[in-house]
Each structure stands twice: as C-alpha cells, then as structure tokens.
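#dry-run=false #mode=assembly
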Amino acid sequence: MNQFLDPLAWLILLPLLWATLAFVAGDRVGPRLAIAGLVAQLLCALLLAQDVARHDSIGHLAGGWVEPLGIRLFADGLSAVMLLLTQGVALALVIYARSYFSKATPPAFWPLTGFLIAGMNALFLSGDLFNLYVTLELVGLAAVGLVAAGGGAAQIAAALRYLLATLVGSGAYLFGVALIYGSYGTVSASLLGDLITAEAPLAVWLAAGLILTGLLLKTALFPLHFWLPPAHGGAPAPVSALLSALVVKASFYLFLRLWLGPFATLAEVQPLLAQLPAALGAAAILWGSWQAIRADRLKVLIAYSTVAQIGYLFLIFPLLGSGALALQAGMLQATAHGLAKAAMFIAAGTLIKVSGSERVLGVAGAAAHLPVTLFAFALAGVSLMGLPPSGGFLAKWLLIDAALAQGQPWIAGVAIAGGLLAGIYVFRVLRLAFRVTAAGDDETPPPRPAALLEWSAFLLAAASILLGLFAMPLINLLAGVAR
Amino acid sequence: MKRLVRWLTVLALSGLAGALLLAIAGLPPAPVRLAGEVAGNLAASGVSHPVTAVLLNFRGYDTFLEVAVLIIALLGMLAAGLPPPPPTGSRNAMLPTLARLAVPLMVLAATYLLWAGAFRPGGAFQAAAVLAAAAVLLHLAEIQAPWPQHARGPRLAIAGGFLLFLAIAAALLVNGGLLRYPPEQAGLLIVLIESGLTVSLAVNLAAFFLLRSSSENGQILRSTAKMGEKP
Amino acid sequence: MTPGLIYAVTGCLLFVLGLGGVLLLKALLRRILAFNLMGSGAFLVLVGLAQRDGTPDPVPQAMVLTGIVVAVAATALALTLARRWHALTGREDIARVGDAGSRKRGRQSERRNTPR
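#status=ok
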C-alpha cells in the first residue's frame, strides 16, 4: 500500500490532475487548485529529498518493465534539488499570480502553468532519452503558450520566435537520440553510460553535439540567447518569473545530467571540449550584463540579467573533473538565481503595475510608497551580485575556490567581473527608486497594491539570501550524485 | 554581411550533412537488441501486436505524457486567441451530400481501427484522427456548428479520456509501479484506456478547427436541407 | 545497401534541409513546414538506422508514433500563433536574427502598435 503513496509518482500525477481540472473548471477555480496542488507537491518533494538523502538515489520502473525494455524514472540529489526549487518557487509564484491577475487572467494561464510544472517534474525524474524528449516538448510548448497568453502583436511575435527556437532545439535533440538508438539499440541513460566508451563511433559524437547544442539553444546560452529577452521581457510578470527562474534551468539540468552521465567518457577524451561552454558562459556574462545596463524597459533589463546569470552556470564545466565543488557551485547558483530572479520579476511586476510605466525610468521615486517591494528587489539584487551572505555569494565563492584549485584562474576573474557588472544594473534601478521626487502635497499617492504581491516577492528574495546561510542540507543532498 | 552569414550557414549545414552520412556509413552493429525482448514479453502484455504493446504497455508512460502535449497545444491556442466563426451560407450542394455519405463510413472505419489496434497496425491515435477528420468535414459542410470558446462539452470530453488514463495509472501504483498492469487484466485495461483516449483525442484534434471565439456566436450553422432536398 | 540504410541517409538529408529551411527562409508557413521536414528526417533515421540489418524493431516504430503526435501538437501551436500574428499585423513573417535593419524597424512599429 505504501507504493501508492510514492512521492516520485505523485510529483508527476498531481500537477497533471489539477491542470486538467483547471482546464475544465475555468479561471475561478484555477488558483485554488494550483495552490492546493503545489502545497501537496512541495510535501512530496520534501519526502523524496528525505528518501534520496538516505539512499543516494531512488528508482521507479514505469510499467514495471526493466530497462532497456521499459522506462526508468529515478531521483538522485541533483533531481531532488531541482524538484524542491521548482515546487517552492512555483508555489510562491501562483500565490502572487492569483492577486496579480485578480482583474483579468490571461486565458488558459492556470492549466498551462500546471502542465508546465508537470513537464518539469517529469523531466527531472526521467532516465530515458526519448522520454526526456517528450518532457522537453511538454515544458517548451507550455512555456510558449504562457508567453503568448492574452497578448498583443509583440507578445505573439516573442512567442513565435521562442517557439521556433525551442522547436529547432528539440528537433536537434530528437535527431541525436535517433542516432544514438541506431548506434546502441537503447535510449536508457544508465545503460548508455556503460555502453559509450572512448572508442565511440563518429555517429555518437555527432549525436552528442546535436543533443547538447539543442539544449544550449533551449537554455539561451550566448550566442543562442536571441529569443529570451523579448519573451521574458514581454510576458506578464508571473510568466516571466516562471520562465527565467525555472524553465531555463530545466534544459540546463538536462545538459548537466547528460554531461555527467552518458557523455561523461566523451568529455574525458577531449578535456578541451569543456572549455567551450565555459567560454560561451563568459561571453554571456559580459554581453548580458552590458545589455542589461543599456536596457530601456525594466523587464527587459531583468531578462538580460538572466542571460548573464545563465553564463555562470556554464563556467563550471571545465572544473567538474575533480571534486564535488564545481557541481555544488553550479547547483547553488541555479537555486539562488531561481529564487532571486523570481523575486526580482514579481517585484518588477508590482512596480510596473503601480507606476503604469514599463520603462526603467518609471521606477523613479518608488521607494516612498512601495518599500517592501523595493527591499525585495534590493535583496534579490544582492544575491545576483554575489554579496555575502547570500546564496549567490556562496555559489560564486565555491566557483572561485574550484577555479583557483584547478588552475583555471580566468574563470574566477570572470565571476568577479560579472558580480561587478550586475552591481551596475542593479544599482541603476535602486538609485532611481530611492530618488526623492519633489512632490507637491496635492499630488495623490498611487494606489497601494495588495499586500500579497509585495510579501511574496519579499519571501522569495529573503529565501535567496538565507540560502547562503543554510546551504548545508542542499550540499549534503548533492554529495551522493554519481559521476 | 547578411549574405555572408547565410552562405556560412549553408556551408556549415553541408558539412553537417556530409559528416552525418559518413557517420552512418561506418556504424558497427548495435549491441542491444530490443526486438527479441518485445517478442519475449508479448504474451504478458495484453495485446498481440508488438508496436501496440510497446506503445501502451512497455512504454505506456510516453503515451501518457504525449496526450498531455496535445492538450497543451489546444491550451496554447486558447491562450493566443481564437479566430471568429467562419462565414456561412455558401450554398454548396456537393459538400453536405458528401459529408452525409462519408461520415458514417468514417465513424465505422474509426471504430475498426480502434478495435484492430490490438493485433494489427491501428489504435487510439489513428481512430481519433479519422473521427476528427469526420468532424472537420461536417464543419466544412456547415452541418456542425463551431464550438464556442468556453463550451463545457468539448473540455469535458478532452479531460475525460486523459483523466481516465491518469486514474488507471494512479490505481496501478498499488501494483508496484506507474502503469504496471497485472498480466491477466492488461488487455482489458488497455482497451479501456484506448477507448477513452479515442474520444479525448478526437475532440482535441477537432477542437483545433472547431473552437472559435465567442464574439459573433449565436449563429446556427446547421444546414436546413434534408438528405436529397435542395437547400 | 539495405532499405534501412537508405531511409537513414534520406532522413539525414531531410533533417539538414529542414534545419536550413527554418534558419534561412522568410515566410512563417514555410519555416513551419521546414520544421516538419526536420521531424520527418529524425523519424526516418530513428526507424531506418535501427533496422539497417533488415530485422524489424517495434520500439523505434512506437517512438516515431509518439514523435508524430508531438510534432502535430507543435505544428498546431505554431500555426495558431502564425494565424493570430497574421490577424493582428497582416504579416506572414517575423524578422529573423540576421535582419538587423528590419529588427529595429520592427521594434519601432511594435512600440507604436501595442498600447501598453
């Protein structure tokens, strides 16, 4: 009977259930279903993390058939961390969205969000390359739907660009999987880990290249990032938060998982290959920060900040060979950024809603009447800049430590430079917000937003700071990740 | 500059094509052979066609998720915005007659495809596609009115099949795993799931064409001509 | 040269052609068709390469069935967005990455068109 309460299975079934019910029932019931479902899912994720901490990895055979005939689902430290991040951030975001959309919800928002989360959970738990393709499409199509929801021409254009990019990415991924099945007769990630040796045929190298490049396109790593700023910058704030904080991390997680798993031997054959994602990551940090400093609209600024922060995630690849530091740095960065970016986007959403202007200049003087929101924005900025004691600081600290220990000081330099650049665009916003405007007494103060809007942003931002102080459980979870 | 980028792209793609052909030519035989495993476990799968067995039993979890993908596409359509209902009154005599002749045959064909899936190529997706095509034909012949955006009926039909699949998947957790069929009931459960999916997928695919925005609704598009009568 | 291998070679060529189409073509409808070509290429390789020694293998055939449904869903979404884009702007293409000049023009007209 206790197999019925398997948290792994329910993490996939629950969001599918409430998303379908939200599809039938409509926008009145949607928020309640979402919140109830996510609370239950967060519980499942915590139970699963507990199980993983005890056993290092949990397996589940879908259909009861052993690989390679069947599909094996599994959870280890890496999946557990991503699942916790997803359920936690999503819960805060649906609570925010409920108040944010109180007057007019974009059509199909609640069911699309549910299917998005279902797809992500299924992705984090899957161990079969073709099944991963289906989950990638689940996530990608739901994300495109959310970007397009209720929008005008600009949003539709952004959604179209995003869709074409994501379809090219998954098309390349699928072709790679086809080559691998032809080469080995199986698409099971664990079996391929043993089958792919240093003498792998050319087809496998091409397949790996296609798969990983497709995933880079979906993660918006420079120079394949062109679709991200319009999509994340143009969508409603809760959607931007979901996309920047969570969706891009899903394809990154898959890239990392394949790099450490089936393609590990290929990466070891030619260590210089690992420098390529790191070089692109460095370029992403510099280019993204530069564009953020120059951005005219607030959400586009934050979107370019995402492009830059994604670069940090790829700096870890030359350092994965020896020791667990780099992996911990990468996952901490992913988690801290997820929390901070979600906070930043919804804080921006509140600011834009109240000021009525999408531009960065519209933030002027906001500190006077939106103190909590500004504080949340500032805290999130602290984590993005990597100031102590935030989670972002700890992630960069571990990254610099690993870089210096393994003789790659340029990575440390790039990390520090990125922090300084982030400081420039964060302070650009804060400086404007704290500007004291010479307001007359007859000027009516702008309407106060619902308290929930401000405090959910604050909660997420505080979490990204506290992550720096309470990171040990996370690091322990990652200890058992097999490489 | 633009032309240079385009020629470089063409060059890169040609290189990729060449590399792929080279890679395929020199591929050694695959170490793992799944065809034998499928054949070996076919008896316990509940159906007698190997592809159906893989689709609904061995890799049934994939099928479960792909139904969700199709629902997402419909949700994306709802999100982006639906077009208005098409104009009516085209006075075409051929199309309604053709529809009235063809649709019953299509329904029959769909039922056969669904039933035959157990032992020859066929199954829920094929049957659903034929049914959806029948619905589109009826719509084009102006016999079937478009569905308003917020209509409950189509949504319930789409959700019903998927929720049935989900309920069975959850119930089977007791048996030790997601979608782990007990061998004696596997055939029955698969037929149940396929029937639900046929309805759900047919309505889903038809909805891509028939769901319209409610702005100009209220028109009754049913052709008043009876069979054989001039409209 | 076995039939499986011929399918696989054709699949590779279709995939590269489709990829080129999505990247280089201008009209949206053609880019969506090119994406379908990519998908068909991948399916041919999936089935052809696995059966290159002549013995049929049901697993990739089932995978292709799943892949076709996913491609249908993706195409439906793409066509929906293209239809909506056409209804809103009357255009049948969106600016591609290399179109530096038209992107600026597009951004200016977008700012004019969408009253936010």
